[in-house]
Amino acid sequence: MPLCPPAAIHMRREGLLIDDRTCTGCNKCIAPCPVGALTMVPRAAAVA
After folding, report:
1. Residue 7 pLDDT exceeds 80
2. How confident is the model at residue 1 (pLDDT cuts 50, 70, 90)?
3. Which residue has the higher pLDDT, 46 or 16?
4. Residue 17: which H helix or E strand, with range?
5. Virtual CA dihedral for 32, 19, 23, 33, nearest 10 degrees?
6. Of 3, 12, 20, 40, which one is least surrounded by beta carbons within 10 A?
7. pLDDT digit string (tens) for 14-40?
8. How far apart are CA 40 and CA 25, in angstroms?
9. What global pTM score does this model have?
10. Angle at 48 between CA 24 and CA 26, to 5 degrees
11. What angle do CA 6, 11, 17 make, to 5 degrees?
């Protein structure tokens, strides 16, 4: 998807797949979603 800078959104036969390992949480996909299906779910910060 061109709206996703890290390319975390992939089109599949079943629908969209969002790779949570790649998603940076930039929120650029939220507003353009034509059906309002996307929301951000908070996740715990990772400790390196």
Report:
1. yes
2. low
3. 16
4. strand 15-18
5. 10
6. 12
7. 988 999 899 999 999 999 988 988 898
8. 7
9. 0.69
10. 10
11. 70
- What Rg, from alpha-carbon coordinates, does the chain have? 11
Give the integer Cα–Cα distance in Å for 41 and 48.
Answer: 21
Are 40 and 26 a contacting pair, CB within 8 Å?
Answer: no
d(CA 30, CA 9): 12
Every domain of the chain and the residues it spans: 1-35
Q: How many CB atoms lie within 10 A of CB 43?
A: 9
In our burial notation (b when 16+ CB lie closer than 10 A, e otherwise), range 17-42 reads: eeeeeebeeeeebeeeeeeeeeeeee
